[in-house]
Amino acid sequence: KMDDDDDLPQLSSHTLAALQEFYLEQQHREGMKTSQGFNQYSIGSIEEDWQLSQFWYSDETASCLAKEAVLAAGKGGRIACVSAPSVYQKLKEQDGEDFSVCILEYDRRFSVYGEEFIFYDYNHPLDLPENLLPHSFDIVIADPPYLSEECLQKTAETIKYLTKGKILLCTGAVMEEQAAKHLGVKMCKFIPKHSRNLANEFRCYVNYASRLD
User: Fold this and answer.
1) What's this model's pTM, rounded to 2 decimal places?
2) Which residues are in coiled coils (predicted)?
């Protein structure tokens, strides 16, 4: 008879732990790659909207927007990223620079960022923690998850609450009029790119003299 499992090679507990850690890390990385903007409001909604809210910026675009935010915020400045986790991640790469940053995001997987993570649902634009004081950020970067006036209008309430003045909005070119109406922002020459191509033309809008023109 076969000795049950005795002849099978046994992995040491150390190797098993290392493997487990490797798989967890891999899962975490995969999760980070796919998680932006996925939320339960997407279920059964129009497919393009669901798709749209899942796109990451290309590395180059995220870097460019992060640099712009740091310059606009100034020394010791505070930056808020509203539904723009790839810009937040780029800002975090520049550790040691003189600024602070918060991420307001619906996807709770981003809570791995600790205290800088603030759960945010655009349907409740002012449902924010008490310690998030009005007009306490030098610049707010926002990328509303859906191309709808309702989503822009609600996100705009959050942006106006948070910012001392400067706004950097990323959304579709079709939103130009609504962006001007709700936030007083104008389209820049800079064209943001995504790591996968979007069906809708995407643009950046600002309400101050930026370096994106």
Assistant:
1) 0.75
2) none
